[in-house]
Design a protein that fits this description.
heterodimer; A: four-stranded antiparallel sheet; 11 strands; B: mainly beta; five-stranded antiparallel sheet
């Protein structure tokens, strides 16, 4: 299993541009999450999904959108990039049963800079 | 008040030292507790879950005090490879919201030779 994969690894955007951060997991997890981590800070939840077709806002959803059309994919969309969105973005997934229940598995992150 | 608070450090200790990290959480209805480890410029990875009775995994011991809403992580015989940021994580269920993880800012540990 590849686990959770994210693309791209790095990106520089200009103010006002848009982009989609991709996230895919091959563990058949129903729960998926998007976090952002600013320097020296903890992870903040942006959006999450409990299954295909179901998404909900986290703590810091403004400026972002998500969709979940399949179990595997959970893309995060930035419509009008702003410097405040400069951060490291982590996607994670979680099983809903089994020994690893409650453990979140993270992707390697996308480092985004908005100039 | 933040949901999860921990001392950011940094903690700088020599190899072989014992070091302890503390964490407090605000919601008494919190259900599950974890320590994650995050290496520089990498993703967080689960180090260990924390159980009410306390639990040990090799050189690492985690303890939970529900009455005081306090979690601790003890590392004995520190190794250079233990250098990382340690994240205190709490799973909270609020209303109809399914459990979400709330992360502390992390405590940075550097072990020197």
């Amino acid at each position: 299993n590849a686990g959770v994969t994210q693309t791209p690894k790095f990106r520089i955007l200009k103010i006002g541009q848009s982009m989609t951060l991709q996230c895919t997991q091959d563990m058949n997890h129903n729960y998926m999450y998007w976090y952002r981590q600013d320097p020296g800070m903890g992870l903040k939840l942006i959006y999450y999904s409990v299954g295909a077709g179901i998404t909900d806002k986290g703590e810091v959803p403004n400026g972002y959108n998500v969709s979940r059309s399949t179990t595997e994919d959970f893309p995060l969309r930035l419509e009008l990039a702003a410097p405040s969105q400069t951060s490291v973005y982590f996607c994670a997934s979680r099983p809903t049963s089994g020994i690893a229940y409650n453990e979140q598995f993270f992707g390697p992150g996308t480092r985004l800079t908005v100039l | 008040r933040k949901e999860v608070e921990q001392d950011p450090g940094p903690f700088n200790v020599p190899e072989g030292a014992t070091v302890a990290f503390n964490c407090t959480y605000s919601n008494s209805a919190s259900q599950s507790f974890f320590w994650y480890r995050q290496d520089c410029r990498k993703e967080p990875k689960l180090l260990m879950s924390v159980y009410s009775s306390g639990n040990e995994d090799g050189r690492f011991t985690a303890q939970l005090n529900r009455a005081s809403q306090y979690i601790s992580l003890l590392i004995r015989d520190s190794k250079l490879s233990d250098s990382a940021t340690y994240l205190c994580v709490v799973n909270m269920v609020r209303g109809s919201t399914l459990g979400r993880l709330y992360f502390g800012r992390g405590t940075q540990l550097t072990v020197w030779p």
